[in-house]
Automatic annotation (TrEMBL):
Residues 618-627 have a biased composition (Gly residues). This is DEAD/DEAH box helicase. Residues 611-631 are annotated as: Disordered. One of its GO terms (cellular component) is cytosol. The keyword ATP-binding applies. One of its GO terms (molecular function) is helicase activity. InterPro entries: EcoEI_R_C_dom, Helicase/UvrB_N, Helicase_ATP-bd, Helicase_C-like, Helicase_Restrict-Modif_Enz, P-loop_NTPase. The keyword Secreted does not apply. It comes from Streptomyces lunaelactis. It holds the Pfam family ResIII. Residues 184-351 form the Helicase ATP-binding domain. Transmembrane segments: none annotated. Keywords: ATP-binding, Helicase, Hydrolase, Nucleotide-binding. SUPFAM superfamilies: P-loop containing nucleoside triphosphate hydrolases.
Length: 833
């Protein structure tokens, strides 16, 4: 038995030793969840595709009651040490918010216990029984010994909702952890509970399941189901949860939206806007129609806004319902040392936090790239000559105007035009299957958004001719007329609008999974607001294959990524420069080094607390928030001193600069390098000499592998000629020249002339019909470069007019011969001249 056991693999070890040991301890088959999938695996974007990292899955998760994990078991094969599973068990337990984990090889068992003041790792003789571990779990959560607490912690989830493929919609692991923490806090009689989850991670699903489990624990509410008030400050934040989540689960008899000046009773779950509840004269507002103890639970969505400020007029709603347990949900809590706007001061520290970094690492949120586009006037400033008048004849006060003044005090019309040119060019270059990615543009204010909309509309005339609503401005000034456009923009399968231009309106409260590009053309100094804006792109959209998104930053707002209170580093950070037509002339890679994530205990930058005033009703209820909120004191002084806004035209605006950063030898700091130095270093990492590089490049298959390796090193080979300012030189010649300095560079035309002179005999060795294909290949090389020297190119013009790919390959005697001929053509064409 012993000799045979040492030959068992992990699965056999589990069947013969681990599972029997669990059953001896009293665990039933239903309480043991094998291969418990934790996350989906991080998405890693490539140029056109995405690959997903391995998903985390625990060998076993133990549940005392269904869907409430209380411990992890990590198994290793019999012949290995049980210690080999300790780190995995610890990691999975931490991820699942558990204090107990076990590592075993079928012979020995190690327990990892996080419940004590100091974590303990110790050998144990056996697995604990279900009752033993459940008691320890409750004690760890601080709810041991109360019937109501045990009832709350064991209440069941609801699985009424279905996904689009009709599978059961189940909460993700972090939502379960958040719910468990909230229920435990409620069982401990904590009256204010804060849950912080990144934008796009499903706070509504969390709220639904929390209420569902609370409704199945009547003992905690005097033998009845709890009455719940769901509060928010925008109609969409109320209507979407009500219609899409709560009504299908609880039904119309139990779900009601307060409005119309009427305070109905007799329901279990109420939805309301602050604006609706405060209707009426002072001291007789609608919310006072409900006694202070009427609601057992008040859920405050986006709790960093609205009532977050101690002097907000909406705070009195929460204060009126003070006897209720108040649960705050937010992605962006606000901390203000002055205590006027402080999410933590009101709700306390979060009982659970799930960051943007966590969501990206788990593969539940889109990773992103950053392009910083620097315009010359933003870098150098604008200094009008003495006596300069604006377009309305106003004399402009002499001063050096910079980004703080642009659009607020100084409007340079060409600045918006140049940005619009760059954006349309970028979208066209990155179109997939002829479709431009949906793009959300944030401007300084409503007027700026209008000018940007007009510029984009005019520049994208060819798109507008096909799609009249290609670009739309969506601000508070446009509501309710653009309600339909916003709904179409939200849809993954809608063809228009493609570009939505806003100011502050769409920064929060709107689910936009189809957005592929978030454009920042408005200065942002508030970290909570910045996170909300970035969150517009973080949702995955599998319907259209969206698994990452791009941030295009004209105003260096993404410098906030470097703040320690931001928790999601970009995959790649590029700083770009455009000419006066908005064309790309410069790219700088300034990706910072990766850091280990910190626990959620840092300061959070205070958010400007403009009241989001909104009347009850409206198609989307997104009103308010598009004003000129300014938080920088120096900026406020300058604007007030001016008292006017000046508009000028005829200014030379263009994109400028290109630099890249890479890790220094210490592995921590970044050092500035030229793009040539960057390419030099990355090519030498391939460990090839020039001849080997050319040889591998000549064959289509090995060339594709080289291009992918370079792409992973942030070098897009096909764009390299433009980036290095040598569009007439082939990529392989540039790679060789930059990596091995001093080697001569020749143009594609020179190569072609040389080839025709030296390799005429090679061309004559083919029949006329095959030679016709190779001649067309040479023309393709002259126009677009060596990456086109492959059989797949036979699918595109001018080859598609010659016949099908199989027919063209037949001219050479078959597919294999066609591959060999094209590879030989490339080898001769790209040899050293």
């Amino acid at each position: 038995m012993g000799i045979d056991a040492y030959k068992l693999n992990e699965d056999e070890t589990c069947k013969r030793f681990v599972l029997p040991a669990l059953r001896v301890a009293g665990w039933s088959e239903k309480q043991i969840r094998p291969q418990y999938r934790i996350n989906d695996g991080r998405l890693v974007p490539t140029r056109r595709r995405h690959k997903r990292g391995a998903a985390l899955a625990a060998d076993y998760v133990l549940e005392y009651v269904p869907d409430v994990p209380i411990a992890v078991v990590e198994a290793k094969r019999y012949r290995l040490s049980e210690e080999n599973g300790v780190e995995q068990a610890r990691r999975y337990a931490r991820k699942l918010g558990l204090s107990f984990a076990y590592a075993t090889n079928g012979r020995n068992i190690v327990e990892i216990d996080f419940s004590a003041e100091k974590p303990v790792i110790r050998p144990v003789e056996r697995f604990p029984s279900p009752d033993e571990l459940w008691a320890r779990f409750l004690r760890d959560q601080g709810v041991r010994g109360t019937e109501a607490g045990e009832e709350l912690m064991s209440a069941a989830y609801d699985y009424t909702l279905r996904n689009t493929d009709n599978t059961v919609k189940r909460p993700r692991y972090y939502q379960r952890v958040a719910i468990t923490r909230a229920l435990a806090a409620l069982a401990r009689d904590e009256r204010r509970i804060l849950l912080v989850l990144a934008t796009g991670t499903g706070k509504t699903m969390l709220a639904l399941q929390l209420v569902a489990r609370l409704s199945k624990a009547p003992g905690a509410f005097g033998g009845r189901k709890p009455r719940v008030l769901y509060l928010a400050d925008r109609n969409m934040l109320v209507d979407d949860p009500k219609d899409r989540y709560f009504l299908p689960v609880f039904g119309e008899d139990d779900v009601y939206k307060i409005g119309g000046g009427e305070a109905k009773r007799g329901r279990k779950i109420y939805f309301a806007l602050y604006q609706s509840l405060e209707q009426g004269d002072a001291q007789s507002e609608l919310f006072r129609e409900y006694p202070p103890d009427y609601f057992d639970i008040v859920i405050v969505d986006e709790c960093h806004r609205g009532s977050a400020s101690s002097n907000s007029r909406w705070r009195k709603v929460l204060e009126h319902f003070e006897p209720a347990v108040q649960i705050g949900l937010t992605a962006t809590p606000v901390r203000d040392g002055g205590k006027q706007t402080d999410t933590f001061e009101y709700f306390g520290n979060p009982v659970y936090s799930y960051s943007l970094r966590d969501g990206i690492e788990d593969g539940f949120l889109s990773p992103y790239r950053v392009r910083r586009v620097r315009l010359n006037v933003d870098v150098e400033g604008y200094l009008p000559e003495p006596g300069k008048k604006d377009v309305y004849g106003q004399v402009i006060p002499p001063d050096l105007y910079g980004p703080k003044e642009f659009e607020r005090v100084m409007v340079i019309l060409e600045r918006t035009e140049t940005a619009a040119h760059y954006l349309i060019d970028y979208l066209r270059k990155n179109a997939e299957d002829g479709r431009l990615g949906k793009t959300l543009v944030f401007c300084e204010d409503i007027e700026h958004a209008g000018r940007m909309r007009t510029a984009l509309h005019n520049i994208a005339s060819e798109e507008v001719n096909v799609l009249p609503d290609f670009v739309k401005r969506i601000t508070s000034a446009d509501l309710p007329h653009v309600g339909g456009s916003l709904e179409e923009f939200r849809k993954a399968d809608s063809s228009q609008p493609v570009i939505a231009v806003t100011s502050r309106l769409l920064s929060t409260g709107v689910d936009l999974p189809a957005v592929r590009n978030v454009v920042l053309f408005r200065r942002i100094v508030s970290m909570p607001e910045f996170k909300q804006v970035i969150g517009r792109g973080t949702r995955l959209c599998p319907e259209i294959g969206k698994e990452s998104f791009d941030i295009i930053d004209f105003v260096e707002a993404t410098l906030l990524f470097e703040d320690r209170s931001f928790d999601g580093p970009p995959l790649r950070l590029l700083e770009e420069t455009a000419d006066e037509q908005g064309a790309l002339v410069d790219v700088e890679d300034i990706t910072p080094p990766a850091e280990e994530p910190d626990d959620y205990d840092g300061d959070v930058v205070a958010e400007p607390q403009a009241e989001y005033e909104e009347q009850d009703g409206g198609s989307f209820g997104l009103g308010g928030g598009d004003g000129d909120t300014v938080t920088d004191e120096d900026e406020i002084d300058r604007i007030q001193a001016r008292g006017k806004r000046y508009r000028v035209s005829g200014v030379d605006v263009y994109k400028m600069g290109e630099r890249r950063y890479q890790l220094a030898d210490d592995g921590l700091t970044m050092r500035l390098v030229s793009i040539e130095q960057w390419v030099h270093n990355q090519v030498l990492e391939l460990d090839l000499d020039p001849a080997q590089l050319r040889t591998q490049w000549a064959r289509a298959k090995s060339r594709a592998a080289l291009m992918e390796a370079l792409r992973e090193a942030d070098i897009d080979v096909e764009e390299l000629p433009e980036e290095l300012g040598k569009p007439d030189v082939d990529p392989v010649d540039l790679l060789v020249s930059v990596a091995w300095e001093g080697l001569a560079v020749v143009s594609r035309d020179e190569r072609l002339t040389w080839f025709r002179r030296e390799h005429e005999e090679f061309m004559d060795s083919f029949g006329e019909r095959a030679r016709e294909v190779l001649e067309a290949m040479l023309v393709k090389f002259a126009e677009e470069g060596s990456p086109q020297l492959k059989v797949d190119t036979l699918k595109v013009p001018p080859f598609d007019s010659m016949g099908r790919v199989v027919d063209l390959a037949g001219r050479f005697g078959g597919a294999r011969q066609a591959h060999e001929a094209i590879d030989e053509l490339a080898a001769r064409l790209l040899t050293v001249v």
